[in-house]
Amino acid sequence: xxxxxxxxxxxxxxxxxxxxxxxxxxxxxxxxxxxxxxxxxxxxxxxxxxxxxxxxxxxxxxxxxxxxxxxxxxxxxxxxxxxxxxxxxxxxxxxxxxxxxxxxxxxxxxxxxxxxxxxxxxxxxxxxxxxxxxxxxxxxxxxxxxxxxxxxxxxxxxxxxxxxxxxxxxxxxxxxxxxxxxxxxxxxxxxxxxxxxxxxxxxxxxxxxxxxxxxxxxxxxxxxxxxxxxxxxxxxxxxxxxxxxxxxxxxxxxxxxxxxxxxxxxxxxxxxxxxxxxxxxxxxxxxxxxxxxxxxxxxxxxxxxxxxxxxxxxxxxxxxxxxxxxxxxxxxxxxxxxxxxxxxxxxxxxxxxxxxxxxxxxxxxxxxxxxxxxxxxxxxxxxxxxxxxxxxxxxxxxxxxxxxxxxxxx
Length: 410
What we know:
11% strand; 17 helices; Alpha-Beta Plaits; 3 domains; 8 strands; SH3 type barrels; five-stranded antiparallel beta sheet; alpha+beta
């Protein structure tokens, strides 16, 4: 084609050989570019439009994902390359090099399409319920790395002798140390991902805590090298995957699946307010519905013991205390609370006294694991317990405040 145009220019326009050669080459290149442009428009405007219509008509969502990931768009770029390939015969001295460039370009487009296809596989897999416990994003990234290496090898093979490509492949074994150094995080991440997945230690959606990296939130992504945590303050923390094997972390998913979230909090009682129940206080506490059964049976038991041992002195005998009665009340209150999980451990215990008073610890589980609901349930419980302490003539321990000193002053 170039020769024909060159001869035509020399014959018709009496151009010199050098000028005719340059002009014919420019005309040929512009013509090829124009044909490539038209082919690209036809492919994208006509073929891709029809593919889009077909995709929207089908009930299958996979083809829509393929279209959204631009798999078909990438394949459309091959059409102009085919035009250049057939036109390369017109350039006698450059045809071989042009064909090699076209081969490399098509190989590159195929690689990009393969990557988009693999991304589609990940998106389709995410729609499955088991994808959270068995994420494959890390495995897909490994496949991409291997595919990239082989694409690079084949591209080199296109521009060199075939023996060179095989020599390059054989040298990969010798380059293993360098490869391991370059892809250290990827290799460690892959091994860590397999271990975490096999042992079911970490899944997308899990709430984890890893204080060393400032992570406290929900796992939103598990990739080959990093695990992304969306913290409750809306920040993101990226942690190397292999750190989950080397370092300790807390996974709250077991709590969510169990359906109960623990409350473990103490009320510190001023020990100077602890005393035996007198008749007046006992009479007032008997009016508390949750204590009637306890006080009736406890009084009968204490009276029987004291009569059996002939002890009337409160030091030698047994007598009800306001702190013990308070513990019994808290236990009954929790047993009748509809927000407390009755199948799990439920304790109201007295811990060792400290310089901050006597701790009365509430140890139980709520039946709602949602954070906001849990905090509300716990606050309601302790609001009630703190407010009712005065009924038992108990005082909460609190360090002196400005109001305390003001009372002393005035």
